[in-house]
Every structure is written in C-alpha cells, then in structure tokens.
Design goal:
By secondary structure, this protein is an alpha/beta fold. The chain folds into 2 domains: about 5-120 and about 300-330, Medium-chain alcohol dehydrogenases, catalytic domain (Quinone Oxidoreductase, Chain A, domain 1, Alpha-Beta Complex), CATH 3.90.180; about 130-270, 3-Layer(aba) Sandwich (Rossmann fold). Helices cover about 30% and strands about 25% of the residues. The protein has 9 helices and 15 strands. It has helices spanning about 45-55, 125-145, 165-175, 190-195, 230-235, 260-265, 280-295, 295-300, 310-320, and strands spanning about 5-10, 15-25, 35-45, 70-80, 90, 105-110, 115, 155-160, 180-185, 200-205, 220-225, 240-245, 270, 305, 325-330. The strands form 3 sheets. Strands 3, 4, 5, 6, 7, 14 and 15 form a 7-stranded mixed sheet that branches. A 6-stranded parallel sheet has the order 10-9-8-11-12-13. It has a two-stranded antiparallel sheet with strand order 1-2. Helix 5 (about 230-235) links the parallel strand 11 and strand 12. Helix 2 crosses helix 7. The model has no long low-confidence stretch (mean pLDDT about 95). The chain binds NADPH dihydro-nicotinamide-adenine-dinucleotide phosphate. NADPH dihydro-nicotinamide-adenine-dinucleotide phosphate binds near residues 48, 204, 227, 250 and 318.
Length: about 325
C-alpha cells in the first residue's frame, strides 16, 4: 500500500521545494545496519526541521529527502530481536531527518539501535510534544544537576524560553521546585511562561547586549541556554561562583563573544549538550525522567496540533522564532 511522505527536492537552480507525495515502501532508503520499519503515527517540528524543510544550514546533502528529526509510532517489521511488530517506539536524533530519511512520512526505516521503546506512561503524541526539543531540555537539566544544581542554590535562567527547548525546560525546572527566570523577546508570552512555571520574565533586550564587563553581579545558579551568541556571553559573566550553563542552542547566533574570565575567576562551567549522538543508555534515562518530571497537563498547554500539509509553512516560521512551544503532527 502506498503511503504519504513530505518529500523535499532541490531544483538545478538550488531552489528547495517540499511536496506531499504518495510513495511505495521500496522507495524508503536502506538504513545503516539491521533495520526496523515503523508505521509513524506522530512527528513534530524542531528548529532543525525548519532548516531541513528550507534547505538551510547545509544539513541535507542528498535529495530527494524526507525531513523530520523525530517520530513516534509502532514497529511494522524488524530485523532486530529487541523489537517486534506492534511495539511502540520513539526516535530522536542520530541525524535521522538530516542524513537519513525522517519522520515526515507515514512510514520510516531506521537502524534498530536508534529506536527507544516508548516510555511507560507516555503516548506517541506526548512523546512528540516532547520531541528533540524537550528531550534536550531534559538532558540539559540533568547535566546541571550532575554539576551540583539544587533548588536552594538560587534562580535558574532559561533563554529562548517561549521556544520548544525553553518551554519544556521551564516546565521541568518549575516542577522540580526551581525559581525559573525566563528570558523572552516576546512579551506577549509572559502569562504562558508563568503558567509553565516561570517565577519571573526577563525581557530579551535586557540581557542581549554585548559584554561590556567580563564579570557582573553573581545572579544565576544555573542556566539552560537555547540562544548562544551575545546572550550566552553575557550570561557567563552573571553566573554565581562555581555554577554551570548548559549550552543547548544557537537561535541567537553561533559566535561566542565572551572572555575566559568567568571560568578563571568564578569557576563557571560551560556544559555542552548534544542530543543527536547521545548514547542509548542516556536516552532511556532521560525519557524516564521526562515521564516522571514533566507535568503532562503543562505539556498539553504548550502544544499545538498541525498537519503534514502545514509543515512547509511552519519551517520558515520556526527559523524566525515565530513558533510558541511545541507542535505535534498526527499522520
Ligand atoms: P525554537 O525556535 O522553538 O526556540 C528558539 C527560541 O529562541 C525562540 O522561540 C526565541 O525565544 C529565541 N530566539 C530566537 N531568535 C533569537 C535571537 N535572535 N536572539 C535571542 N533569542 C532568540 O527552537 P528550539 O527550541 O527547537 O531550539 C532552540 C535551539 O536549540 C536551536 O538553536 C536548536 O538548533 C537548538 N537545539 C539543539 C539541540 C542539541 O542537541 N544541542 C537539540 C534541540 C535544539 P523567545 O521568543 O522566548 O525569545
């Protein structure tokens, strides 16, 4: 039976165009190693999907291509012993949707070892409401905890707070009892962020300026940073002694116009967070924490539904910082 796939193709003049096509299973490229074919029930939209839908960032090298860096669904057929037809599974990362065909199709074929069993207590739709953005937010919180973060240490900053990573980080930290200070460039999202768990909103303009002094008042006990650039440089100089920033994203830029003074004089730590090549054991642990520490009603409140047809328009929108919270697509 043919199935629907959102296929992005590149014309000779370099134009990248997404279109929904009906394709047969034999068009699914082989996966590297023993594979599992999945009936995809849900997918989502991340910043990287915006790049893959529009041909940005040089992420997709081979066309035609099916984007979608995350998906959830049930196993259709399996070459690995761990999975059997009907098993609910979730996939994030491993360059699926970039180097390999991804979740913007009703069927996907991937390396079996890349799949994680759908965590107990989460539906496929909830797993996609979390998606790479939320999974990475959880990894960031776990890294901060591993470096000593505790609620009594003081306020924790979340940058890019109204975006996907930021919304989930705010909700998790709020639920864990932290005083969350949410940085946003969209003042209209203030009520939304407070409902998620932010104690205070910090307008982006107040923290987005270039570093003038390498050290400012010691203010933050931790930070989940989705923005990078000038904002991250500024935050480093405002960290309390010995505290850590989890660097997750670059929505505000890849450059880091900072000095090393916060590292040398305050023992500040900059923790790199990668979700893509993360070992499987960490993935299972993080999904377990998500099922435990993320309030599912709050997750619902930060999620909007979209269709496969709407994804081509949503791609450019997320790149402009115009998507609030998380998007779930039922296939
Ligand atoms: P979103 O677009 O949903 O969120 C990004 C948010 O950053 C926006 O909502 C906006 O928040 C803020 N923002 C956007 N542009 C700027 C700017 N120019 N200056 C300051 N703030 C800005 O994306 P995601 O949450 O999905 O991803 C966030 C980042 O994390 C991306 O760079 C993404 O590539 C990265 N990422 C990295 C992962 C990893 O493994 N390391 C995994 C997942 C994501 P507001 O409106 O509140 O200001």
């Amino acid at each position: 039976m043919p199935f629907r796939a959102l296929i992005v193709d590149k014309a000779e003049d370099g134009t990248v165009t997404p279109a929904i096509q009906s394709i047969e299973e034999d068009r699914l490229p082989e996966a590297p190693g023993e594979s599992v074919t999945v009936d995809v029930s849900h997918t989502t939209l991340n910043y990287k999907d915006g790049l893959c839908l529009t041909g940005g960032g040089g992420l997709v090298r081979k066309y035609p291509h099916v984007p979608g860096i995350d998906f959830a669904g049930t196993v259709r057929s399996s070459e690995v012993a761990e999975f059997s037809p009907g098993d609910p599974v979730v996939l994030t990362g491993w360059r699926v949707g970039e180097a390999w065909w991804g979740g913007y199709a009703e069927r996907a074929r991937v390396k079996g070892k890349w799949l994680v069993p759908l965590p107990e207590g989460l539906s496929a739709a909830q797993a996609m409401a979390v998606g790479t953005a939320g999974f990475t937010a959880m990894l960031a919180v776990m890294a901060l905890e591993d470096h000593g973060l505790k609620p009594e240490n003081g306020p924790v900053l979340v940058t890019g707070a109204a975006g996907g990573v930021g919304s989930v980080a705010t909700a998790i930290l709020g639920r864990l009892g932290y005083e969350v200070v949410a940085v946003t460039g969209r003042p209209e999202t203030g009520d939304y962020l407070r409902r998620l768990g932010a104690a205070r909103i910090l307008p982006r303009d107040e923290i987005n300026e270039t570093v003038k002094r390498p050290l400012e008042s010691e203010t933050w006990a931790g930070c989940v940073d989705a923005v990078g650039g000038a904002m991250l440089a500024r935050v480093l100089g405002q960290m309390k002694y010995g505290c850590s920033v989890a660097s997750v994203g670059l929505a505000g830029g890849a450059a880091l116009p900072a000095t090393v003074i916060p590292f040398l004089l305050r023992g500040v730590n900059l923790l790199g967070i990668d979700s893509v090549m993360r070992p499987r054991a960490d993935r299972i642990a993080a999904w377990g924490r998500i099922a435990r520490d993320l309030d599912m009603d709050l997750l619902d409140s930060m999620t909007v539904a979209a269709t496969l047809e709407e994804l081509p328009a949503l791609g450019p929108k997320i790149l402009e910082g115009g998507v609030k919270g998380r998007v779930v697509v039922a296939l």
